Amino acid sequence: MTLMLLDSASLWYRAYYGMPDTMVAPDGTPVNAIRGYLDMTARLIGMYRPNRLVACIEGDWRPTWRVALFPEYKANRVDDSGEGEEEPDTLTPQIPILLDVLDAFGITVIGVDDFEADDVMASFAVQEKGPVRIVTGDRDLFQLVDDVRDVRVVYLAKGLSQHDLVNLSWVQNKYAIPGGRYGLFAMFRGDPSDGLPGVKGIGEKGAALIANAFATVPEVIAAAHANDPRLTPALIKKILAGLDYLAIAPTLVQCALDISLPQVSLDIPRKPKNMKVLQELKEKYALGASVDRLIAALEWQ
To answer: In which region does residue 297 sit, left (phi positive, over 0), alpha (psi from -120 to 50) or beta (all else)?
Structure first.
C-alpha cells in the first residue's frame, strides 16, 4: 500500500521552468505549469504504482514559530513588498486552476495552517504505514529516509527522467556520513536557500566530520566542552561560538513530525470526483493531452 507524497510547489516550479511558456489556454491564460504538473504526476504514478496519493501544499511557507526563533528564516525569498515569496507573474494564476483540476480528479490536496509542505510530508511519512515515496527537489526531506519503514525520496534535482531514489546508502555515498544523520549534518552546514547559515565557519567537510562522530547536537556540544579528540581545535572553537544558533537549529531544520493531520481518504481516486467539472476545465484551459495522460495512469475505465 505505497503512499506517494507530492511536494506540489517543487513540482509546479519544475513544470513551469521546464515546459514552454507558449502553452496557453484559448483566453491566453498560461498553462505550462498545470500541464507539466499533471504530466509528471501521471509518469510518477506509472513508475511507482502508489495505492495512496497526497498533493501536499504550503499552509505557510514561513511558519510563525520558525520566524519567531530566527527572523532571517527564508527572508532571502521575501519579495519587495515584504509580504510574500517571490513568484513568477505567469505562474501565480495557474496555481488555483491546478488545484481545481486536482479536486475534480479527486486527488487529495492537504496543507496545514502555519506549517510548510515539508512538515506535512514528514508527518505523513512517520504517521502512516510504509512504503512511502516523497517526491521533491528539496534535499531537506533526506532527513526522513528510513530503510526499515521503506521511506524513500524521489529526488528530482536532475529531472524526472534521471531522478534518484534516495535511501540511507544513497545519503551515505553522497555526503560521506551515516545515512540517518542528514538532519544533524544540515544543522551544522546550513542551507542558503532557506536563509539558514549553519554554524559560522563550518562547511560541508566539517559538518560531515561531526555527523560521522556524533548523533545529536547535545552530544556535539558536550564533546566540544570536553575537548573531545574527535573534534579538531578549530571545530571546537566554532561550535562553542555557535551555541546560540545550535540551541534553535534543531527546530529550524528538522521537519515537524507530529502535525494533527486531517482524517481524509488518501486512496488513489478510482473515478473522478466531478467528471463534468474536469471536462469543463480540460476544454477551457486546453489541458487535453495532460488530463488524458493522468486519467490513463489512474486506470479509469
So the answer is: alpha
